[in-house]
Amino acid sequence: MRPDTVEDYLKAIYELQEKYGRAKTSALSVRLGVTPGSVTDMLKRLAGQTPRLVRYQPHQGVTLTDRGNRRALAVIRRHRLLETFLHDVLGFSWDEVHAEAEKLEHCLSERLTEALANYLNHPACDPHGDPIPSGEGEIQMPAGCPLSELPAGQPLLITRVRLQDREALQYLARNRIRIGAVVTIVEKSPLDGQISLTIRRGRKQHAFSIGAAVAADIEARPS
To answer: Domain ends where: 18, 41, 64?
Structure first.
């Protein structure tokens, strides 16, 4: 198995496990852009390794072992440090950095990774608010709940945007959504989950809306 392919799987499993408790074959297939059959074959191979990286049960999904979790956090650390460097130093927009970091994350040595972290002054999170694991594999999750679960009428501080879709990130950026922005939920539609928001632009309030799926991937806390 190619090491970069293994790392891609471990990272995807970690991110789905973080959100849903375990990673299902169908979700991995969509995230990695491969067929469900290829995912199943790869999971069986990973589960059969010694020492094991994953725990896999057909039709039940997959979770990481402690060793698999450590390896996933190592590649996630490289990825999110690269996103931060591309955004903060080279000026890439937050909708561009994910694809570029995907190409580079397997190339960084441990020495270069730590040099990058030192150069960036050990940031706590990347441009999307995703926490950056420490060199020891520790990770501090940001405080926040999905916008879809928060009530209307109070100012909310955006802490994390889990979206990777480029068009969705561009739409949010056009409406001034970023980490640290303060928004207010005006109304939540009982019919389709559409959420109406306002955000301050200078002296005026700018109104816009997002769908329920997008709202579920934006986290915030009371401002």
So the answer is: 64
pLDDT in tens, 100-155: 999 999 999 999 999 999 999 999 999 999 999 999 999 998 889 999 999 999 99
**How far apart are the C-alpha atoms of 187 and 184, rounded to whole Å?**
9
Which residue in this structure is represented by tokens 């199943």? 40
As for how many domains the chain has, the answer is: 3
Token pair belonging to 220: 């915030």
129 and 151: one domain? no
Find the CATH number of the domain harbouring 42: 1.10.10.10
Rounded Cα distance between 24 and 98, Å, is 23
Burial 3-33 (b: 16+ CB within 10 A, else e): eeebbbbbbbbbbbbeeeebbbbebbbebbe
One domain, residues 44 and 84: no
| Residue 153 domain boundaries | 145-222
Distances in Å between the Cα of 85 and the Cα atoms of 4, 78, 91, 116 are: 21, 11, 9, 8
Whether this prediction's pTM lies above 0.85 is answered by yes
| Domain C-terminal end among 112, 141, 170 | 141
Task: State the amino acid at position 171 in one-letter form.
Answer: Y
**Cα 217–211–143 angle (5° rounding)?**
25
